[in-house]
Write a structure and sequence with these properties.
- This protein has two domains: 8-163, no CATH class; 192-401, Intergrase catalytic core (hpI Integrase, Chain A, Orthogonal Bundle), CATH 1.10.443.10.
- Helix content is 44%, strand content 4%.
- It has 15 helices and three strands.
- The protein has helices at residues 56-64, 71-90, 101-111, 117-120, 144-163, 192-203, 210-229, 233-238, 275-287, 324-344, 349-357, 360-372, 377-384, 389-392, 400-410, and strands at 244-248, 255-262, 268-272.
- A three-stranded antiparallel beta sheet has the order 1-2-3.
- α2 (71-90) packs across α5, α7 (210-229) runs antiparallel to α9 (275-287) and α10 (324-344) runs antiparallel to α11.
């Protein structure tokens, strides 16, 4: 990450209002010196600061640097820190290092309804890039669960800045603490009927032109990877087709395909490449005019740009891996289409809203929930790359209606 820069279009007035309608991403926010945090009221005066930061943005970037090897954590942490920093300057006319406990209570309420929406909320439609003048920090109001997660991230930020000697205290440390509770069950997953709606939407995609066929093939392959492999979005964009390999069973000698994944925390794991996943891989590679099976170490990405085909490129040329945001956009388009089909079929708005909210991680949770219904949790743990079985056990919930029917049928007192 590059050092903090000031951009002329983003000067902040002494009243705190942004002088330009455009909001800059973290690292490009321009502030007057009085709002930089150099003289923040919560700055530590102990003289034992362990980071070289002299401004709030520099301190936040030092905190984010800890997550350089964890793309998901980095993206989530950056987003929450960026939002708070922009709000602190633009709405409270305070540097982050002067925020009080009361300010943070106000910010929590702001997350549930970011106003004025024209300044803070992205316009409907395709998500604007971070360098676009149409970029905004929010896609809309945060749910209660997302708000709690945001405040948890910020609490971690403030605690670290106190430990680093940058801040004198954590303004969130006074928040009400809850007793330690068991890990909640995963709710952000697609029940069987919703997952079938997504599959049906992909199968109904038009395939009349060459481009339509390419769009269909990529969508089908992408959803196969997420569901059958249980992969994270960072793992889809960060690994390649050369990571598929075949290994013989040491007892039977039977050949089995695996996908070696470099995942979260730079941990490697072997994901079983099921027969179904290999069939989908071969179909996708045929659509790209490639040999059905990749060569060991083949430097090709798992997902290709839709216009790429071997006949239009030299044998030694491979495309760059797609970005996280590009893959995210493809998934969201399919989920939105599935939600539209759901409503058009008269099947209810609530479930359609759930389809619209789904993302790559929902597919991973859906895969985990499906696996946990049928196989040993240790196998689920190793396939998904969890550290402990306690993490995997959050998928042991079944679908509530099915659970109700099963208990109703078998759990009786029989007086």
């Amino acid at each position: 990450m590059r050092p903090i820069e000031m951009r002329e279009t983003e000067k902040v007035t002494s009243t705190g209002a942004l002088a330009h309608a455009e909001l800059a991403p973290l690292g490009e926010i321009v502030v007057l010196d009085e709002l930089s945090g150099r003289a923040g009221s919560n700055r530590s005066r102990s003289g034992h600061q362990q980071i070289s930061a002299s401004t709030d943005q520099e301190a936040v970037l030092a905190w984010l640097a800890r997550f350089a090897d964890s793309p998901n954590t980095l993206a989530n942490s950056r987003r929450e820190a960026e939002r708070l920093l922009l709000w602190s300057i633009g709405e409270r006319a305070k540097p982050l290092s002067s925020l009080s406990h009361e300010d943070l209570l106000m910010y929590r309420r702001f997350l549930a309804n970011p106003q004025p929406a024209a300044r803070w909320v992205m316009a409907p439609g395709r998500k604007a890039g971070r360098r676009s003048p149409d970029w905004r920090p929010f896609a809309g109001p945060l749910s209660e669960a997302s708000t709690r997660q945001a405040m948890t991230v910020l609490n971690s930020l403030f605690s670290w800045l106190v430990e680093a000697g940058y801040l004198a205290g954590n303004p969130l440390s006074l928040s009400k603490r809850r007793g330690k509770a068991p890990k909640p069950r995963v709710t952000r997953f697609l029940e069987t009927d919703l997952w079938e709606a997504v599959r049906g939407t992909i199968l109904a995609m038009p395939q009349e032109t060459q481009r339509q066929r390419a769009v269909y093939a990529r969508a089908r392959w992408l959803f196969s990877l997420f569901f059958l492999g249980g992969l994270r979005i960072s793992e889809v964009v960060g690994n390649g087709m050369g990571d598929f390999y075949m290994r013989s069973n040491h007892k039977s000698g039977e050949q089995r395909w695996w996908l070696e994944v470099l995942g979260k925390g730079d941990k490697q794991r072997m994901v079983p490449a099921t027969n179904e996943l290999m069939v989908e891989l071969m179909a996708y590679r045929r659509a790209l005019e490639l040999p059905e099976l990749p060569q060991p170490g083949e430097p090709s990405p798992l997902v290709f740009p839709v216009a790429w085909r071997r006949s239009t490129h030299p044998a030694s040329v491979w495309p760059e891996a797609m970005t996280r945001s590009a893959v995210h956009g493809i998934l969201k388009e399919v989920f939105a289409a599935a939600a539209g089909r759901w409503v058009n079929e008269g099947r209810g708005q609530e479930q359609a809203d759930k389809l619209s909210a789904a993302s790559a991680h929902w597919l991973r949770h859906t895969a985990g929930s499906n696996l946990a219904n049928d196989i040993d949790l240790r196998h689920v743990r190793d396939t998904l790359g969890h550290t402990t079985l306690s993490t995997t056990s959050i998928y042991v919930h079944g679908e509530d209606d099915a659970r109700h029917d099963a208990v109703n049928a078998s759990h009786r007192i029989s007086w």
